[in-house]
Amino acid sequence: PEAITIQELANRMSERAVDVIRMLMKQGAMHKITDVIDADTAQLIAEELGHTVKRVAASDVEEGLFDQVDDSTDTETRSPVVTVMGHVDHGKTSLLDALRHANVVSGEAGGITQHIGAYQVSSPETGKKITFIDTPGHAAFTAMRARGAKVTDIVVLVVAADDGVMPQTVEAINHAKAAGVPIIVAINKIDKPDAKPERVRTELLQHEVQVESFGGDVVDVEVSAKNKTNLDKLLEMIALQAEILDLKTNSERPAEGTVIEAKLDRGRGPVATVLVQRGTLRVGDIIVAGAEMGRVRALISDQGETVQEAGPSVPVEVLGFNGPPEAGDRLAVVENEARARQVTSYRAHQKRENAAASISGMRGSLEQMMS
Ligand code: GDP
Ligand code: MG
Predict the structure, then answer these.
(1) Which residues are near ligand 2, the ion (C-beta closer than 5 Å)?
(2) For burial by CB atoms within 10 Å, which of 158, 193, 250, 267 has the most?
(3) 37, 12, 121: which is closest to 23 by C-alpha?
(4) pLDDT (tens place) for every residue of the chain, 371 residues total
C-alpha cells in the first residue's frame, strides 16, 4: 500500500507540516508530523492546498530499467561466475587466494593484485575465463539473494577432508539448492595425514549431494589449497560445468550488473565493485544502483588497471557514484541524468517511507502491548 509521512508530503509541496496537520484536523483526524497517511488522503490534502497531484507508481519509474525477461538477444557465451562456500576454517579464503595466484588472466606486473571483491582466472586447458566472487561466505550470498540479485552460476563447496560435513556446509548446500545453482565439491586439505575424503563423500550423501563415484552427478575434486594440488583440475571442472550450463549474454546493450561490495574511500570517494552481467559498462555511462546514481568516472580491473569498458561476467571497480550503493543492489545504465535522478529519488523516497512505516508500525504494536 502506498503511503507517505506528513513531513514528506509537506516537504514535497513546500508547505508547512503544521498546515497539513490542520487540514487533516478539519477532516476530523488528529495526526503527528511523523504519522503515515495513505496516498488517497495525501492526494486530497494536496489538492485542497491547491497543488496538482501526479501519482507515480513503481512500475512507471522502474519500467525498462532491466530487460532481463527478454533474453532472445543473448547469443554470446559468457564466463561462469563462481562463489566459494563452506564451513568456517575449511579453507575458502586459502582456496580463493591459491586460485587467484595459480593463474592470472593477463600479465600481472610484479605479482601485485588488487583486492576488489571479485577476480577472473582462465582455465588452463581452454584459456576460458572464470569469474570468482572473492567475498566468500554465506552473508554475501544471502544478502544478494535477498535483493533478488542472481550473480552466481556455480557454487564451489569447500569441505575440509579432516573435518567433514559441518553445519555451515549443510547451510551452503541448502543455499545452493534454493537458488538452483549447481555445486562442485572441493574436498580440501587432502595434504593432511588425517584427511578422509571418502568419509566426506559419504556424509554429503546424507544431505542429498551425490558425487559421481556414488552414482550421482555432482563433481568432486580433491584439492589442497596449501600445496596448490589439483587446482587446475578444479578449474577444468568449473569450465566443464559452465559449458553444460550454456551461459549466454549480449554485450551490445547498456550494462546491467550487481554491486558486489561498496565503500566510501577517503581518496577516491564512493567505490563500488560491480559484476557486469549483461551489456558493456563504459566510462561516461550514467548509472543507477539502489538509491544511488552517478556517472562512471573510471573503471578499474581486478588487475588494478584502468580500463575503458567492462563486458559480461567481468568484475570491475566503478568510480563516480554520488554515494556508495549497497551490496546486492542492481546496477543499470540509464539514458540521462534526469532519468537517473527520477529513479534514485523515487527509490530514496520509498526507502524513507518504508523506514517510517515500519517505525510507526512498531509504535502501534508497542501501544497495543502497553494497553
Ligand atoms: P575459511 O575460514 O574457510 O576461509 O578458511 P581459511 O582459508 O582461513 O583456512 C583455515 C585454516 O586452514 C588456515 O589455517 C589455513 O592455513 C588452513 N588451510 C586451508 N587450506 C588448507 C590445505 O589445503 N591444507 C592444510 N593443511 N591447511 C589448509
Ligand atoms: Mg575465510
Answers:
(1) 92-93
(2) 158
(3) 37
(4) 577 889 888 988 899 999 999 999 998 889 999 898 988 899 999 999 999 887 777 767 777 777 555 677 888 999 999 999 999 999 999 999 999 876 544 444 444 556 788 999 988 777 889 999 987 556 667 777 777 678 899 999 999 999 999 999 999 999 899 889 999 999 999 999 999 999 999 999 999 999 999 999 999 999 999 999 999 999 999 999 999 999 999 999 899 999 998 999 999 999 999 999 999 999 999 999 999 999 999 999 998 999 999 999 999 999 999 999 998 899 999 999 989 998 998 888 888 877 776 666 555 444 444 43
Q: Which atom of ligand 1 is nearest to the CA of 224?
A: 23
162 C-alpha to ligand 1 centroid (Å): 11
Give 220's strand partners.
185
Pocket around ligand 1 at a 6 A CB cut-off:
86, 88-94, 136, 188-189, 191-192, 224-226
ipTM: 0.99
Distance 369 CA to ligand 1 centre (A): 49
> Among the atoms of ligand 1, which is closest to the Cα of residue 97?
7
Q: Which atom of ligand 1 is nearest to the CA of 88?
A: 2
Whole-number CA gyration radius for the chain: 25
Number of Cβ within a 10 Å radius of residue 85: 26
For 100, phi then psi, to 5°, come to -65, -35
SS (H, E, C) 139-180: HHHHHHHHCCCCCCCEEEEEEECCCCCCHHHHHHHHHHHHHC
Question: 262: which 3 cell numbers?
Answer: 561498496
